Structures are given as C-alpha cells and as structure tokens.
Description:
Number of helices: 4
Structural class: mainly alpha
Strand content: under 5%
CATH topology: Ferredoxin Thioredoxin Reductase
Distance between the termini: 20 Å
CATH architecture: Alpha-Beta Complex
CATH superfamily: Ferredoxin thioredoxin reductase catalytic beta subunit
Shape: globular
Number of strands: 0
Largest sheet: none
Amino acid sequence: MQKPSEKNLQKMWNYARKYAEKSGTYFHPDPAVTEGVILGLAHHMDTLGRPLCPCNFYPNKEEEAKKRRWLCACNEMKKWKYCH
C-alpha cells in the first residue's frame, strides 16, 4: 500500500478524534493498531473517496463502499463502541 496523502491522513485523524470524543469510544490500547487503521482509512479516502474500514476483506471495495455499512464509523463500532 502506498502512503496516503497528507490531506486525507490528517482528515482521518481529526475525524477519529472527534468521533471518539463525541461518541464515548476509545482508540485501541496499542497505538500501532490505531495508526494502522487511520492509514487504511486515509488510503481508502485516496482510492475510493470514502473511509471504508481497512480491517476487513472485500471482494469488491467499490461496491462495498456504496453499501455504506463498513464506512467509518462502521456498524460494529456503532454497536460495540470500540474500534478493532
């Protein structure tokens, strides 16, 4: 995976911080996991135009992004209040 754009990287960090603050969710205790998720979200913003959760396998990422259920904050995060 190529390094995501700085613009989308900052956008996803800002989004994640604000979402955690507003929703009462927390980042993963291992900062490397959080960083990996943010990098994946930013990469998907660059390639798909949407923050598709990078923690899952999708046979067709473009189609999955249209369905919206795995866009950050994904359904699992909304339900369980934590990110992988």
